[in-house]
Specification:
This protein is an all-beta fold. It has a single domain, classed as 10 Kd Chaperonin, Protein Cpn10, Chain O, CATH 2.30.33. Helices cover about 0% and strands about 35% of the residues. β6 and β7 form a beta hairpin.
Length: about 110
């Protein structure tokens, strides 16, 4: 195969997401440092959508989505890690479209 770059097209109801932040330690609202090795309950993560399949209905490229990083497939493209998942594995969408929002804002 040649070294030319190939465009990636997601199939069916698949979404490709890059995790936003969440690496290393975090700070609580009160300012307490929580180390990355701290055992916590299952924690959902935010990510940015980079590609969608033709049957994806509720998210668009550029939206921020909430999902569980466990049980997802990870792929590396040009040194950047992405997660591939089904649309039904997403828990929430944060976008500027406000059709059915919760009233909460990021």
């Amino acid at each position: 195969m040649s070294d030319s770059k190939l465009q990636i097209q997601m199939l069916h109801d698949r979404v490709i997401v890059r995790v936003v932040g969440e690496d290393g330690e975090r700070r609580s609202v009160g300012g307490i440092v929580i180390p990355a090795t701290a055992q916590m309950a299952k924690r959902l993560s935010w990510g940015e959508v980079y590609g969608i399949g033709q049957y994806v209905r509720t998210v668009q490229v550029g939206d921020r989505v909430l999902f569980s990083p466990e049980d997802q497939f990870e792929v590396e493209v040009q040194g950047q890690a992405y997660l591939v998942m089904r649309e039904r594995d997403l828990h929430a969408v944060a976008s500027e479209r406000t059709e059915h929002g919760t009233g909460l804002y990021l």
